[in-house]
Amino acid sequence: MTHISVIGCGYLGAVHAAAMASVGHTVIGVDTDTQKLQKLENYQPPFFEPGLAELLEAGQAEQSAGNEGADGTSQRLLFTSDISRAAEASVHFICVGTPQSQDSNAADMTYVNSAINDLMPHLKPGDLVVGKSTVPVGSAAELAKKVAPTGAKLAWNPEFLREGHAVEDTLRPDRIIYGVESGSEDDPAVAILDQVYAHNLRGGEAGAAGEVGVAGEAGAVTPRIVMDYQTAELVKTAANSFLATKISFINAMAELCETAGGDVAVLADAIGMDKRIGRRFLNAGLGFGGGCLPKDIRAFIARADELGVEQAVSFLREVDSINLRRRARMVDLTREALGGDLSGKRIAVLGIAFKPNTDDVRDSPALDVAERLEQAGAQVVITDPEAIENARRRDPELTYAPDLTEALTGADGVVLLTEWPQYKNLDPVAAGELVAQKIIVDGRNVVDRRAYREAGWTVRGLGRQE
Ligand code: UDX
Questions:
Q1: CA torsion 292→293→298→299, rounded to 10°?
Q2: Less CB within 10 Å around the terminal CB: N or C of the chain?
Q3: Which atom of ligand 1 is nearest to the CA of 166?
Q4: What residues are in contact with ligand 1 under a 6 Å CB criterion?
Q5: How much is the pLDDT for 35?
Q6: Splitting the chain (466 residues) into consecutive groups of 10 residues, what average pLDDT does each group show?
């Protein structure tokens, strides 16, 4: 088993640290955010992520040595603000964020650079620093040079987890990518990473996970691909760009359906049956948001520009604009549905997270639309099962109602912006008794339109006819 440090304990790092401990490694998680740490030190998730609480709990398991806490006992998983504790580990994962820069589209590398700077004094010859953060191509080669004087090596090991499925995606990823200095299988970093991911690579047996109750699926072998740094960095950026393009493609078709006539949901089903295309990520609606897709495609354009190959990814500018146009269209459609004027209209906003099963509102299309509706004179009442506190922190001016019934009561219109199951499966008859006017605009194309119409509702959807 390996002694691991994880620098940065957000959506990526906290889940990675807990997952690594659950399969038997000794893990020290380091973060500078005291509020987050307070929760993690008590093995409580600092954000909403299904399955994380159970995984953290498993990390409390005592062990005979390594990871001694203040009380002298030794835990499989410990969290601290003291980066010098990373000296006890030999493999160090960099899991800090790379948000969009304040003044440009480029990725802000401040947190990655300071994580490496803070870690440097504690590195020893033979250690491996493993980058997981999404970085512009070329960063890993630079960082490898920087850590070289300590005798440590660097690998790039991008992470593809989806929020809301982060535990599952971390424990059982589709593939594992090793970007290593030589780009080849015999690089010393490969053997180290193989030990870290032994539970995924072994197959045929449940890993050490069984010991702490979070078992790796017996028999499942995850493909792992060894490559150079640049390819590893690009795998992540290319994957996110492809996914964003797929969503914007179907949303462009939605624009066409809106003007030419046609139903984008039927269109998506029909083209999705072609196995070369596939139905996943073809849900037309309000488009993509969150802490990854939007900023990653912008950072990719910025990096390509720096490299003088801007043309190669200029289509991503269009992907971004199609995505943003959906938000404006949603406001227009709501205005149309409500008779041409939004002023003074009470609108129930169902969902404010950027997608279901998360409390994350970073670049949330739902929050953007709610703000635009309010600016257009509507009085929005927002409900969401998990994301209200985060949304309130971003926009305290808006009105929030934790209770769905309260949000619906007296509404002149309902807009569904995040497809949480409870909104998707809302009973149109019961909801119809609460609202002032039975008008719903489905920003995610998920409600049963026929059931709503039978209950007397007017239903509008992006890319669909009345
Ligand atoms: C994404 C990538 O999937 C993940 O591999 C990467 O590591 C981080 O970025 P995430 O941001 O958690 O993950 O969300 P994802 O499930 O990919 O959804 C992204 C956005 O696209 C959401 O706003 C979602 O609502 C939207 N979306 C998704 C659509 O609008 N239509 C679809 O068909 C699918």
A1: 40
A2: C
A3: 12
A4: 160-163, 240, 243, 247, 281-283, 285, 287-290, 292-293, 354-355
A5: 94
A6: 97 97 96 96 95 92 80 89 97 97 96 98 98 98 98 98 96 97 98 96 53 43 96 98 98 98 98 98 98 97 98 98 98 98 98 98 98 98 98 97 98 98 98 98 98 98 94
For residue 444, which atom of ligand 1 is closest to its CA? 30
Predicted confidence at residue 206, as pLDDT, reads: 43
**Active site annotation includes 257:** no
Choose which residue among 235, 243, 264 to substitute to test ligand 1 binding: the one with the highest number of ligand atoms within 8 A of its C-beta. 243
**b/e map of 223-258 (b: 16 or more CB within 10 Å)?**
ebebbbbbbbbbbbbebbbebbbbbbbbbbbbbebb
- Residue 66: its pLDDT value, please? 83
Name which of 29, 123, 115, 122 is nearest 67 in CA terms: 29
- What pLDDT shows up at residue 204? 45
Report yes or no: 149 and 142 within 8 Å, Cβ to Cβ.
no
Q: Is 77 left (phi over 0), alpha (psi -120 to 50) or beta?
A: beta
Task: Enumerate domains of the chain plus CATH numbers.
Answer: 3-222 (3.40.50.720), 228-466 (3.40.50.720)
Residue type, 8: G
Candidate list 9, 95, 257, 292, residue with the active-site label: 292
Q: How many CA atoms lie within 13 A of 221 on its CB side?
A: 8
Ligand 1: which of 162, 280, 295 to mutate, most ligand atoms within 8 Å of CB?
A: 162
Read off the tokens for 194.
């193989």
Q: Rounded to 10 degrees, what is the CA torsion of 215, 221, 223, 224?
A: 60
